[in-house]
Amino acid sequence: MKIAIVSSECVPYAKTGGLGDVIGSLPKALEKLGCDVKVFIPKYLFIDELKHGLRYNWNVGEMPIRVNGIVRSVHLHQATLPNSNVQVNFIDCPHYYNRGRIYTNDWDEDERFILLCKGVIETCQRLAWAPDVIQCNDWQTGLIPLYIKDNYNWDRMFDKTATVFTIHNIGYQGRFGKDTLYKAEINPNLYYPGGPVEFEDSVSFMKTGIVFADLISTVSVKYSHEILKPEYGAGLDPILRARKPDVYGILNGVDYQEWNPETDKFLPYKYSADDLSGKKLNKKFLMEHFRLPFDENRPLIGMISRLVPQKGFDIFVEAVDDLMKLDAQWILLGSGEYKYEEFFHKLSYYFPGKFASYIGYNNELAHLIEAGADIFVMPSRYEPCGLNQIYSLKYGTVPVVRKTGGLADTVKDWDEENYYGFDHGNGFSFYDYSGYALFKSVERAVNTFAHKDVWRKIQLNGMNCDFSWDRSAEKYIELFKLAKEKRSG
Ligand code: ADP
Questions:
Q1: CATH superfamily of 2-253+470-488
Q2: CA nearest 218: which of 189, 190, 248, 191?
Q3: Top mutation candidate among 21, 395, 411 for ligand 1, by most atoms within 8 Å of CB
Q4: CA-CA 20 to 30 A from 399: which of 93, 345, 372, 440?
Protein backbone atom coordinates (compact mmCIF):
# COMPACT_ATOMS: atom_id res chain seq x y z
CA MET A 1 0.00 0.00 0.00
CA LYS A 2 1.29 3.47 -0.91
CA ILE A 3 0.84 5.93 1.94
CA ALA A 4 1.58 9.65 2.01
CA ILE A 5 1.89 11.11 5.51
CA VAL A 6 1.62 14.89 5.71
CA SER A 7 2.48 16.95 8.76
CA SER A 8 3.93 20.22 9.99
CA GLU A 9 6.37 18.36 12.27
CA CYS A 10 8.60 15.31 12.01
CA VAL A 11 11.46 14.19 14.27
CA PRO A 12 14.43 14.65 13.82
CA TYR A 13 13.81 17.68 11.57
CA ALA A 14 11.13 19.75 13.28
CA LYS A 15 9.29 19.24 16.56
CA THR A 16 7.34 21.19 19.13
CA GLY A 17 5.50 18.27 20.73
CA GLY A 18 4.15 14.76 20.37
CA LEU A 19 3.10 15.23 16.74
CA GLY A 20 6.76 15.43 15.74
CA ASP A 21 7.56 12.20 17.60
CA VAL A 22 4.66 10.37 15.97
CA ILE A 23 5.50 11.43 12.42
CA GLY A 24 9.13 10.47 13.03
CA SER A 25 8.22 6.93 14.08
CA LEU A 26 4.86 5.74 12.64
CA PRO A 27 6.16 5.76 9.02
CA LYS A 28 9.00 3.42 9.99
CA ALA A 29 6.58 0.98 11.59
CA LEU A 30 4.34 1.08 8.50
CA GLU A 31 7.33 0.46 6.27
CA LYS A 32 8.29 -2.58 8.35
CA LEU A 33 4.83 -3.96 7.64
CA GLY A 34 5.46 -3.68 3.91
CA CYS A 35 3.98 -0.28 3.06
CA ASP A 36 5.54 2.19 0.64
CA VAL A 37 5.57 5.35 2.79
CA LYS A 38 6.50 8.91 1.95
CA VAL A 39 6.45 11.75 4.47
CA PHE A 40 5.79 15.38 3.47
CA ILE A 41 6.74 18.38 5.63
CA PRO A 42 7.69 22.01 4.97
CA LYS A 43 11.37 22.79 4.54
CA TYR A 44 11.82 25.16 7.46
CA LEU A 45 14.84 27.44 7.56
CA PHE A 46 16.29 25.82 10.69
CA ILE A 47 16.47 22.30 9.20
CA ASP A 48 20.15 21.49 8.83
CA GLU A 49 20.51 20.23 5.24
CA LEU A 50 24.01 18.81 5.67
CA LYS A 51 23.35 17.10 8.97
CA HIS A 52 20.19 15.42 7.71
CA GLY A 53 21.45 14.71 4.20
CA LEU A 54 18.85 16.67 2.23
CA ARG A 55 19.18 16.43 -1.53
CA TYR A 56 17.61 18.73 -4.11
CA ASN A 57 15.38 16.92 -6.58
CA TRP A 58 16.48 18.14 -10.03
CA ASN A 59 13.92 16.05 -11.87
CA VAL A 60 11.08 17.88 -10.23
CA GLY A 61 12.70 21.29 -10.59
CA GLU A 62 10.46 24.27 -10.11
CA MET A 63 6.80 23.84 -9.12
CA PRO A 64 4.84 27.07 -9.60
CA ILE A 65 2.09 27.11 -6.97
CA ARG A 66 -0.47 29.86 -6.50
CA VAL A 67 -1.49 31.07 -3.04
CA ASN A 68 -3.36 34.32 -2.43
CA GLY A 69 -3.26 35.00 -6.15
CA ILE A 70 0.52 35.01 -6.30
CA VAL A 71 2.49 32.24 -7.95
CA ARG A 72 5.35 31.08 -5.72
CA SER A 73 8.41 29.18 -6.81
CA VAL A 74 8.36 25.89 -4.91
CA HIS A 75 11.07 23.23 -4.90
CA LEU A 76 11.53 19.74 -3.55
CA HIS A 77 14.28 18.40 -1.31
CA GLN A 78 14.42 14.83 -0.10
CA ALA A 79 16.06 12.81 2.67
CA THR A 80 15.65 9.43 4.27
CA LEU A 81 14.17 9.07 7.74
CA PRO A 82 16.98 7.74 10.01
CA ASN A 83 17.08 3.95 10.48
CA SER A 84 14.67 3.35 7.62
CA ASN A 85 14.11 3.71 3.88
CA VAL A 86 11.21 6.12 4.32
CA GLN A 87 11.52 9.04 1.93
CA VAL A 88 10.91 12.45 3.46
CA ASN A 89 9.83 15.17 1.03
CA PHE A 90 10.56 18.73 2.10
CA ILE A 91 8.35 21.31 0.42
CA ASP A 92 10.63 24.28 -0.10
CA CYS A 93 9.19 27.79 -0.29
CA PRO A 94 11.44 30.30 1.50
CA HIS A 95 8.80 33.02 1.37
CA TYR A 96 6.69 31.01 3.80
CA TYR A 97 9.10 28.76 5.66
CA ASN A 98 12.12 30.94 6.33
CA ARG A 99 10.64 32.20 9.57
CA GLY A 100 12.77 30.49 12.22
CA ARG A 101 9.75 28.87 13.83
CA ILE A 102 7.33 26.12 12.88
CA TYR A 103 4.22 28.06 13.88
CA THR A 104 3.86 31.82 13.77
CA ASN A 105 1.13 34.30 14.50
CA ASP A 106 1.91 36.08 11.25
CA TRP A 107 -0.97 37.39 9.18
CA ASP A 108 -0.29 34.81 6.47
CA GLU A 109 -0.21 31.70 8.68
CA ASP A 110 -3.10 30.29 6.59
CA GLU A 111 -1.07 30.79 3.39
CA ARG A 112 1.88 28.87 4.84
CA PHE A 113 -0.20 25.74 5.15
CA ILE A 114 -2.30 26.27 2.04
CA LEU A 115 1.02 26.04 0.28
CA LEU A 116 1.85 22.82 2.11
CA CYS A 117 -1.48 21.23 1.12
CA LYS A 118 -1.12 22.18 -2.52
CA GLY A 119 2.61 21.40 -2.50
CA VAL A 120 2.02 17.81 -1.40
CA ILE A 121 -0.46 17.15 -4.19
CA GLU A 122 1.70 18.82 -6.84
CA THR A 123 4.74 16.88 -5.66
CA CYS A 124 2.86 13.57 -5.99
CA GLN A 125 1.90 14.58 -9.52
CA ARG A 126 5.48 15.33 -10.49
CA LEU A 127 6.80 12.17 -8.86
CA ALA A 128 4.04 10.28 -10.74
CA TRP A 129 3.27 8.61 -7.43
CA ALA A 130 -0.41 8.08 -6.70
CA PRO A 131 -0.83 7.26 -3.01
CA ASP A 132 -3.56 4.82 -1.98
CA VAL A 133 -4.04 6.92 1.13
CA ILE A 134 -3.00 10.39 2.20
CA GLN A 135 -2.88 10.61 5.97
CA CYS A 136 -3.40 14.25 6.95
CA ASN A 137 -2.32 15.26 10.43
CA ASP A 138 -3.98 18.16 12.24
CA TRP A 139 -5.34 21.43 10.85
CA GLN A 140 -2.24 22.35 8.87
CA THR A 141 -3.15 19.58 6.42
CA GLY A 142 -6.94 19.97 6.62
CA LEU A 143 -7.44 21.30 3.08
CA ILE A 144 -5.96 18.22 1.40
CA PRO A 145 -9.15 16.08 1.56
CA LEU A 146 -11.09 18.96 -0.01
CA TYR A 147 -8.46 19.58 -2.69
CA ILE A 148 -8.39 15.89 -3.65
CA LYS A 149 -12.16 15.80 -4.00
CA ASP A 150 -12.62 19.22 -5.60
CA ASN A 151 -9.78 21.43 -6.87
CA TYR A 152 -7.63 18.53 -8.11
CA ASN A 153 -10.37 16.06 -8.97
CA TRP A 154 -9.65 16.69 -12.64
CA ASP A 155 -6.53 14.58 -12.16
CA ARG A 156 -7.51 10.92 -12.69
CA MET A 157 -4.33 9.96 -10.86
CA PHE A 158 -6.08 10.62 -7.54
CA ASP A 159 -9.34 8.84 -8.43
CA LYS A 160 -8.59 6.06 -5.99
CA THR A 161 -6.63 8.10 -3.43
CA ALA A 162 -8.38 8.04 -0.06
CA THR A 163 -7.80 10.57 2.69
CA VAL A 164 -7.65 9.96 6.44
CA PHE A 165 -7.69 12.98 8.72
CA THR A 166 -5.93 12.36 12.03
CA ILE A 167 -6.66 14.69 14.92
CA HIS A 168 -3.75 15.06 17.33
CA ASN A 169 -5.31 17.97 19.19
CA ILE A 170 -8.74 19.40 18.51
CA GLY A 171 -7.86 22.52 20.49
CA TYR A 172 -5.86 23.91 17.55
CA GLN A 173 -8.23 24.35 14.61
CA GLY A 174 -6.64 26.70 12.08
CA ARG A 175 -9.41 29.30 11.81
CA PHE A 176 -9.05 32.26 9.49
CA GLY A 177 -11.07 35.10 7.95
CA LYS A 178 -13.28 34.75 4.93
CA ASP A 179 -10.51 36.02 2.63
CA THR A 180 -8.86 32.62 3.11
CA LEU A 181 -11.42 31.25 0.63
CA TYR A 182 -9.80 33.32 -2.08
CA LYS A 183 -6.25 32.66 -0.90
CA ALA A 184 -6.85 28.90 -0.92
CA GLU A 185 -9.09 28.89 -3.99
CA ILE A 186 -11.88 27.18 -2.11
CA ASN A 187 -15.24 27.14 -3.89
CA PRO A 188 -17.14 30.02 -2.20
CA ASN A 189 -20.36 27.99 -2.39
CA LEU A 190 -18.95 25.80 0.37
CA TYR A 191 -18.95 28.77 2.74
CA TYR A 192 -22.26 29.50 4.45
CA PRO A 193 -23.36 29.29 8.09
CA GLY A 194 -22.94 25.66 9.11
CA GLY A 195 -21.45 24.80 5.69
CA PRO A 196 -18.58 22.37 5.18
CA VAL A 197 -15.72 24.86 5.52
CA GLU A 198 -17.42 27.44 7.78
CA PHE A 199 -17.18 27.43 11.56
CA GLU A 200 -18.34 30.36 13.69
CA ASP A 201 -17.85 32.95 10.95
CA SER A 202 -14.43 31.69 9.99
CA VAL A 203 -12.83 29.31 7.53
CA SER A 204 -11.78 26.29 9.61
CA PHE A 205 -9.07 24.04 8.25
CA MET A 206 -9.80 21.41 10.88
CA LYS A 207 -13.50 21.31 10.12
CA THR A 208 -12.72 21.07 6.41
CA GLY A 209 -10.49 18.06 7.10
CA ILE A 210 -13.17 16.40 9.21
CA VAL A 211 -15.93 16.98 6.65
CA PHE A 212 -14.07 15.93 3.50
CA ALA A 213 -11.79 13.09 4.68
CA ASP A 214 -12.95 9.56 3.93
CA LEU A 215 -12.21 8.55 7.51
CA ILE A 216 -11.21 10.37 10.68
CA SER A 217 -8.96 9.12 13.41
CA THR A 218 -7.50 10.35 16.63
CA VAL A 219 -4.66 9.23 18.81
CA SER A 220 -6.32 7.22 21.59
CA VAL A 221 -9.58 5.33 21.92
CA LYS A 222 -10.67 7.35 24.94
CA TYR A 223 -10.08 10.68 23.15
CA SER A 224 -12.05 9.41 20.13
CA HIS A 225 -15.04 9.09 22.47
CA GLU A 226 -14.35 12.32 24.35
CA ILE A 227 -14.25 14.58 21.29
CA LEU A 228 -17.82 13.61 20.45
CA LYS A 229 -18.91 15.45 23.60
CA PRO A 230 -19.23 19.23 24.06
CA GLU A 231 -16.82 19.15 27.01
CA TYR A 232 -13.93 18.03 24.80
CA GLY A 233 -15.03 18.74 21.23
CA ALA A 234 -13.99 22.41 21.24
CA GLY A 235 -17.15 23.27 19.29
CA LEU A 236 -16.60 20.66 16.59
CA ASP A 237 -18.36 17.86 18.48
CA PRO A 238 -21.61 18.16 16.47
CA ILE A 239 -19.62 17.82 13.24
CA LEU A 240 -17.83 14.78 14.62
CA ARG A 241 -21.05 13.25 15.93
CA ALA A 242 -22.50 13.56 12.44
CA ARG A 243 -19.60 11.37 11.24
CA LYS A 244 -19.51 9.11 14.29
CA PRO A 245 -19.27 5.77 12.38
CA ASP A 246 -16.19 7.12 10.59
CA VAL A 247 -14.29 8.21 13.72
CA TYR A 248 -11.61 5.81 14.98
CA GLY A 249 -9.14 5.90 17.87
CA ILE A 250 -5.67 4.38 17.58
CA LEU A 251 -3.24 4.84 20.44
CA ASN A 252 0.10 6.37 19.47
CA GLY A 253 3.08 4.12 19.78
CA VAL A 254 6.51 5.30 20.84
CA ASP A 255 9.92 4.84 19.31
CA TYR A 256 11.84 2.64 21.75
CA GLN A 257 14.98 3.19 19.68
CA GLU A 258 14.90 6.79 20.92
CA TRP A 259 13.25 6.30 24.30
CA ASN A 260 14.72 3.33 26.11
CA PRO A 261 16.83 3.59 29.30
CA GLU A 262 18.94 0.61 28.17
CA THR A 263 20.22 2.41 25.08
CA ASP A 264 19.37 6.12 25.51
CA LYS A 265 22.37 8.05 24.15
CA PHE A 266 21.63 11.05 26.37
CA LEU A 267 21.91 9.17 29.68
CA PRO A 268 25.19 9.08 31.56
CA TYR A 269 24.06 5.80 33.18
CA LYS A 270 22.03 3.19 31.29
CA TYR A 271 19.71 0.86 33.20
CA SER A 272 17.00 -1.74 32.71
CA ALA A 273 14.16 -3.41 34.57
CA ASP A 274 16.63 -6.08 35.76
CA ASP A 275 19.00 -3.56 37.28
CA LEU A 276 17.74 -0.15 38.28
CA SER A 277 20.96 1.03 39.93
CA GLY A 278 21.73 3.33 36.97
CA LYS A 279 18.46 5.16 37.59
CA LYS A 280 19.64 6.32 40.99
CA LEU A 281 22.91 7.56 39.49
CA ASN A 282 21.01 9.51 36.84
CA LYS A 283 18.91 11.06 39.60
CA LYS A 284 22.04 12.16 41.41
CA PHE A 285 23.57 13.53 38.22
CA LEU A 286 20.40 15.43 37.36
CA MET A 287 19.99 16.88 40.84
CA GLU A 288 23.60 18.04 40.99
CA HIS A 289 23.06 19.77 37.69
CA PHE A 290 20.13 21.66 39.22
CA ARG A 291 21.85 22.18 42.60
CA LEU A 292 19.17 20.21 44.42
CA PRO A 293 20.38 18.22 47.47
CA PHE A 294 20.20 14.51 46.65
CA ASP A 295 18.31 12.22 49.00
CA GLU A 296 17.45 8.78 47.72
CA ASN A 297 14.59 8.44 50.19
CA ARG A 298 12.86 11.57 49.01
CA PRO A 299 11.10 11.30 45.66
CA LEU A 300 12.07 13.57 42.80
CA ILE A 301 9.05 14.64 40.77
CA GLY A 302 9.53 15.57 37.12
CA MET A 303 7.37 17.54 34.71
CA ILE A 304 8.11 18.15 31.00
CA SER A 305 5.53 20.07 29.09
CA ARG A 306 4.41 22.82 26.85
CA LEU A 307 3.28 25.45 29.36
CA VAL A 308 -0.28 25.91 28.12
CA PRO A 309 -3.66 25.67 29.92
CA GLN A 310 -4.37 22.29 28.27
CA LYS A 311 -1.67 20.69 30.40
CA GLY A 312 -3.46 21.38 33.70
CA PHE A 313 -1.27 24.11 35.11
CA ASP A 314 -4.20 26.03 36.54
CA ILE A 315 -4.94 23.17 38.95
CA PHE A 316 -1.24 22.92 39.69
CA VAL A 317 -1.27 26.61 40.65
CA GLU A 318 -4.39 25.98 42.74
CA ALA A 319 -2.70 23.17 44.65
CA VAL A 320 0.80 24.60 44.85
CA ASP A 321 0.80 25.43 48.57
CA ASP A 322 -0.13 21.88 49.49
CA LEU A 323 2.16 20.32 46.90
CA MET A 324 5.16 22.25 48.22
CA LYS A 325 4.47 20.91 51.72
CA LEU A 326 5.00 17.33 50.55
CA ASP A 327 8.33 15.73 51.32
CA ALA A 328 9.44 15.71 47.69
CA GLN A 329 11.60 17.67 45.25
CA TRP A 330 10.63 18.90 41.82
CA ILE A 331 12.17 19.60 38.43
CA LEU A 332 10.16 21.20 35.65
CA LEU A 333 11.19 21.56 32.01
CA GLY A 334 8.89 23.58 29.81
CA SER A 335 8.16 26.61 27.74
CA GLY A 336 5.03 28.34 26.59
CA GLU A 337 2.75 31.01 28.00
CA TYR A 338 4.53 33.79 29.84
CA LYS A 339 2.30 33.64 32.94
CA TYR A 340 3.28 30.00 33.56
CA GLU A 341 6.95 30.57 32.76
CA GLU A 342 6.99 33.39 35.30
CA PHE A 343 5.13 31.31 37.87
CA PHE A 344 7.66 28.49 37.71
CA HIS A 345 10.57 30.92 37.76
CA LYS A 346 9.22 32.36 40.97
CA LEU A 347 8.56 28.93 42.46
CA SER A 348 12.23 27.99 41.97
CA TYR A 349 13.18 31.27 43.62
CA TYR A 350 10.93 30.77 46.63
CA PHE A 351 11.72 27.07 47.10
CA PRO A 352 15.44 26.66 46.44
CA GLY A 353 16.58 23.10 47.05
CA LYS A 354 13.03 21.90 46.54
CA PHE A 355 11.81 23.16 43.19
CA ALA A 356 13.97 23.73 40.13
CA SER A 357 12.94 24.72 36.65
CA TYR A 358 14.42 25.05 33.19
CA ILE A 359 12.33 27.32 31.02
CA GLY A 360 13.00 26.48 27.39
CA TYR A 361 13.17 23.54 25.05
CA ASN A 362 15.86 20.93 25.65
CA ASN A 363 15.55 17.40 24.30
CA GLU A 364 18.60 16.02 26.11
CA LEU A 365 17.30 17.30 29.43
CA ALA A 366 13.89 15.77 28.68
CA HIS A 367 15.56 12.36 28.44
CA LEU A 368 17.54 12.98 31.62
CA ILE A 369 14.46 13.99 33.60
CA GLU A 370 12.55 10.93 32.40
CA ALA A 371 15.42 8.80 33.68
CA GLY A 372 16.33 10.68 36.87
CA ALA A 373 12.89 11.44 38.31
CA ASP A 374 10.97 9.00 40.50
CA ILE A 375 7.52 10.36 39.73
CA PHE A 376 6.19 12.14 36.63
CA VAL A 377 3.21 14.48 36.93
CA MET A 378 0.80 15.21 34.05
CA PRO A 379 -2.50 16.73 35.24
CA SER A 380 -3.85 17.59 31.76
CA ARG A 381 -7.30 19.09 31.31
CA TYR A 382 -7.44 17.00 28.15
CA GLU A 383 -4.79 14.82 26.55
CA PRO A 384 -5.34 13.31 23.08
CA CYS A 385 -2.64 10.70 23.71
CA GLY A 386 0.32 12.07 25.62
CA LEU A 387 3.75 10.58 25.10
CA ASN A 388 5.60 11.68 28.21
CA GLN A 389 3.66 9.33 30.49
CA ILE A 390 4.46 6.46 28.10
CA TYR A 391 8.16 7.36 28.19
CA SER A 392 7.91 7.60 31.99
CA LEU A 393 6.51 4.07 32.22
CA LYS A 394 9.46 2.74 30.20
CA TYR A 395 11.95 4.65 32.40
CA GLY A 396 10.52 3.33 35.70
CA THR A 397 9.30 6.83 36.53
CA VAL A 398 5.85 6.39 38.02
CA PRO A 399 3.26 8.65 36.35
CA VAL A 400 0.61 10.64 38.20
CA VAL A 401 -1.97 11.68 35.64
CA ARG A 402 -5.49 12.91 35.18
CA LYS A 403 -7.79 10.21 33.79
CA THR A 404 -8.42 11.69 30.37
CA GLY A 405 -7.69 10.69 26.75
CA GLY A 406 -4.52 8.71 26.24
CA LEU A 407 -3.51 9.17 29.88
CA ALA A 408 -6.54 7.09 30.90
CA ASP A 409 -5.72 4.50 28.22
CA THR A 410 -2.13 3.97 29.39
CA VAL A 411 -1.93 4.58 33.16
CA LYS A 412 -3.66 2.21 35.60
CA ASP A 413 -4.04 3.50 39.15
CA TRP A 414 -2.22 1.28 41.63
CA ASP A 415 -4.67 1.69 44.51
CA GLU A 416 -7.75 1.34 42.32
CA GLU A 417 -6.41 -1.85 40.75
CA ASN A 418 -5.58 -3.20 44.22
CA TYR A 419 -9.08 -2.46 45.37
CA TYR A 420 -10.35 -4.83 42.67
CA GLY A 421 -7.74 -7.42 43.61
CA PHE A 422 -5.22 -6.76 40.82
CA ASP A 423 -1.58 -5.89 41.28
CA HIS A 424 -0.83 -4.55 37.81
CA GLY A 425 -1.26 -0.83 38.51
CA ASN A 426 1.51 1.22 36.93
CA GLY A 427 0.84 4.72 38.28
CA PHE A 428 -1.61 7.00 40.03
CA SER A 429 -4.53 8.88 38.55
CA PHE A 430 -7.45 11.13 39.38
CA TYR A 431 -10.60 12.11 37.56
CA ASP A 432 -11.83 15.40 39.00
CA TYR A 433 -10.18 18.42 37.37
CA SER A 434 -9.26 20.17 40.62
CA GLY A 435 -6.20 21.13 42.60
CA TYR A 436 -7.41 18.98 45.48
CA ALA A 437 -7.69 15.82 43.36
CA LEU A 438 -4.25 16.45 41.89
CA PHE A 439 -2.74 17.01 45.32
CA LYS A 440 -4.28 13.82 46.77
CA SER A 441 -2.89 11.72 43.92
CA VAL A 442 0.60 13.17 44.21
CA GLU A 443 0.38 12.65 47.97
CA ARG A 444 -0.57 8.99 47.43
CA ALA A 445 2.42 8.54 45.12
CA VAL A 446 4.81 10.25 47.55
CA ASN A 447 3.57 8.11 50.44
CA THR A 448 3.78 4.91 48.40
CA PHE A 449 7.37 5.77 47.41
CA ALA A 450 8.41 5.07 51.01
CA HIS A 451 7.38 1.41 50.58
CA LYS A 452 10.30 0.24 48.49
CA ASP A 453 8.92 -3.19 47.52
CA VAL A 454 5.57 -1.85 46.44
CA TRP A 455 7.26 0.96 44.55
CA ARG A 456 9.52 -1.46 42.72
CA LYS A 457 6.47 -3.49 41.69
CA ILE A 458 4.73 -0.39 40.30
CA GLN A 459 7.89 0.61 38.44
CA LEU A 460 8.29 -2.85 36.92
CA ASN A 461 4.63 -3.00 35.92
CA GLY A 462 5.23 0.17 33.93
CA MET A 463 8.59 -0.87 32.49
CA ASN A 464 7.07 -4.10 31.21
CA CYS A 465 4.27 -2.35 29.33
CA ASP A 466 4.71 -2.39 25.57
CA PHE A 467 3.59 0.69 23.70
CA SER A 468 5.76 0.14 20.64
CA TRP A 469 4.28 0.94 17.25
CA ASP A 470 3.86 -2.65 16.08
CA ARG A 471 0.25 -3.12 17.18
CA SER A 472 -0.87 0.44 16.44
CA ALA A 473 0.73 0.40 12.99
CA GLU A 474 -1.30 -2.72 12.13
CA LYS A 475 -4.43 -0.88 13.20
CA TYR A 476 -3.50 2.05 10.94
CA ILE A 477 -3.16 -0.33 8.00
CA GLU A 478 -6.65 -1.70 8.72
CA LEU A 479 -7.92 1.87 8.86
CA PHE A 480 -6.22 2.78 5.59
CA LYS A 481 -7.77 -0.29 3.91
CA LEU A 482 -11.20 0.77 5.12
CA ALA A 483 -10.63 4.30 3.83
CA LYS A 484 -9.65 2.91 0.44
CA GLU A 485 -12.76 0.75 0.28
CA LYS A 486 -14.88 3.74 1.18
CA ARG A 487 -13.26 5.84 -1.52
CA SER A 488 -13.77 3.26 -4.24
CA GLY A 489 -17.18 2.15 -3.00
P1 ADP B 1 2.07 17.50 23.33
O2 ADP B 1 2.22 16.90 21.98
O3 ADP B 1 0.68 17.92 23.64
O4 ADP B 1 3.05 18.60 23.60
P5 ADP B 1 3.03 14.93 24.33
O6 ADP B 1 3.18 14.38 25.70
O7 ADP B 1 2.26 14.08 23.36
O8 ADP B 1 2.40 16.38 24.43
O9 ADP B 1 4.46 15.13 23.68
C10 ADP B 1 5.37 16.05 24.17
C11 ADP B 1 6.72 15.77 23.54
O12 ADP B 1 7.44 17.00 23.52
C13 ADP B 1 7.54 14.79 24.33
O14 ADP B 1 8.44 14.12 23.49
C15 ADP B 1 8.32 15.73 25.28
O16 ADP B 1 9.50 15.16 25.75
C17 ADP B 1 8.56 16.91 24.39
N18 ADP B 1 8.69 18.19 25.09
C19 ADP B 1 7.70 18.98 25.55
N20 ADP B 1 8.22 20.11 26.10
C21 ADP B 1 9.56 20.00 25.98
C22 ADP B 1 10.66 20.84 26.35
N23 ADP B 1 10.46 22.01 26.96
N24 ADP B 1 11.90 20.43 26.07
C25 ADP B 1 12.11 19.24 25.44
N26 ADP B 1 11.12 18.40 25.07
C27 ADP B 1 9.87 18.78 25.33
A1: Glycogen Phosphorylase B; (3.40.50.2000)
A2: 248
A3: 21
A4: 345
